[in-house]
Amino acid sequence: MLTRNGAVITTAGRRFWDLRDPWVRDYLRERVIEFLKSYGFGYVKIDYNDTVGIGCDKAESLGEGLRQNMEASFEFFQEMQRCIPGLVIENCSSGGHRMEPKMLSATAMSSFSDAHECTAIPIIAANLHRVMQPRQSQIWAVIQQKDSLTRIAYSMSATLLGRCCLSGHVTELTAEQWKTIEDGIAFYKAAAPVIKAGRSYRFGPELLSYNEPEGWQGMLRVGNQGESLLVIHMFGGELPECVSLRLPKNTRTEVQSVYDACHSKYQISDGVFQWCPKETFSSIALLLA
């Protein structure tokens, strides 16, 4: 076990393996790698959300001990992938603590936040475009029975900013609610190539609150083949008559598909996109080619 100043590190009843110890690695090979191989698992989630603090013993400093143990953890992930070809590893972000380049490179995707049911979910998801590739960023649409069609589309549209995940009381929804979800999934599949590889642009005013956001946010994802995905979320506050944004030069403007539960008006003219939202906390998504 990891120790600090000779005492085993314990937090809320949890303790931590010292991955530098050959006995620990052999034990985990048997209990983790061989278990996954024996039962044919192709997906594993790393979800041990706690912190060892400032560091651990058995190095010239506590910080170096922590670095060595994290390096050993990273090497074990690599060993898992070598021993189980095609293994998909999900990295729970642990409040962002694991969202650093080396951990992202060792795993296929990361859960981006626990703010799954908050209206701030598209804001957080957009922020992560500065940190990681959207194709690695798991965004959960948590759907409840009480959700309006507009709210369902708002949540589903947020998943277009990353990797779509669905949760909530999905077995208790009406046929109309399910239709909105299915439309969102179909739109997502069409947009997947742009999400996978492209360049992101953010539009909209500065947002001063995550808990009670006001204004709007636009995210444009331009794919490597020239196709584009435009996702706009309207937040709270005064509902504007129209939202306008100028698309980057040479952005294609032919609308291939639209996802909008409100069936609101929009137009693209001379490189300017205009949207007339009908409600606060609504959304629109367009696939352009």
Automatic annotation (TrEMBL):
One GO MF term attached to the UniProt entry: alpha-galactosidase activity
Top-level taxon: Bacteria
UniProt cross-references to InterPro entries, sorted A to Z: Aldolase_TIM (IPR013785), GH (IPR017853), Glyco_hydro_36 (IPR002252)
Any single biological process term in GO: carbohydrate catabolic process
Pfam family, one: Melibiase
Gene3D superfamilies associated with the record: Aldolase class I
Name this protein carries in UniProt: Alpha-galactosidase
Species for this entry: [Clostridium] leptum CAG:27
